[in-house]
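seq as requested:
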Amino acid sequence: MNMLTEKEITEAQDIIITQLGIQRDQLTLEARLIEDLGSDSLYNVEIAMGIEDHFGVSLPDEALERVNTVDDVYALLETSLGRVPK
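struct tokens:
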């Protein structure tokens, strides 16, 4: 269950779109950052830094290593904002 607001999702999407130069309709929950969206480890770091700066959160490196899909990005952001499903 997604605990982010529509505005937060759009803002996170904007960061991914800007870094990867892709279209918003490519950002399905299942879309894999590297395999489907053309990211790589450097782009993933840039996405993480953009999210950290924009949302004022800190994303743990060990958690970033487990981020593979767009949904994983949202889940990590939820956790970093202190919103975990019960």
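The radius of gyration is 12 Å.
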